[in-house]
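Lecture notes, part 5. Sequence design as translation. It can be helpful to think of inverse folding as translation between two languages: the language of shapes and the language of residues. The source text, in structure tokens, appears below.
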């Protein structure tokens, strides 16, 4: 039980640090907060609503991982390193793919709600 408690504290600390230090994380937390009531308006079923919120959570998770990669890379060296640049670009690409996926889920759900399907 103590291990679980410590892991919870570490997770809270990591999220708090990420929110304080990264604008993208703050924006995605706001998107997550907004997605909950919007999912109730847009989602035609309970499962669709859960899926809509889950896609926003997924974007936040990937952004947290990308932020961790960037912070670690910056800790290794602040000099320009092409390999580190590519690693950072891949993390950014992961966020971009997640954003596109989330956007498509929301567009599909909106089209479904409007009767296009």
């Amino acid at each position: 039980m103590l291990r679980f408690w410590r892991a919870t504290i570490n997770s809270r600390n990591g999220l708090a640090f990420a929110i304080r230090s990264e604008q993208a994380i703050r924006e995605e937390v706001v998107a997550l907060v907004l997605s909950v009531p919007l999912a109730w308006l847009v989602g035609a079923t309970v499962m669709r609503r859960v899926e809509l919120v889950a896609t926003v959570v997924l974007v936040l998770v990937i952004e947290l991982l990308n932020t961790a990669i960037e912070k670690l890379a910056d800790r290794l060296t602040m000099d320009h390193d092409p390999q580190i640049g590519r690693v950072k670009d891949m993390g950014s690409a992961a966020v971009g793919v997640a954003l596109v996926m989330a956007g498509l889920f929301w567009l599909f759900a909106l089209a479904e709600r409007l009767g296009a399907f």
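The translated text above is only one of many valid answers, since several sequences can fold into similar shapes. The two ends are 48 Å apart (CA to CA).
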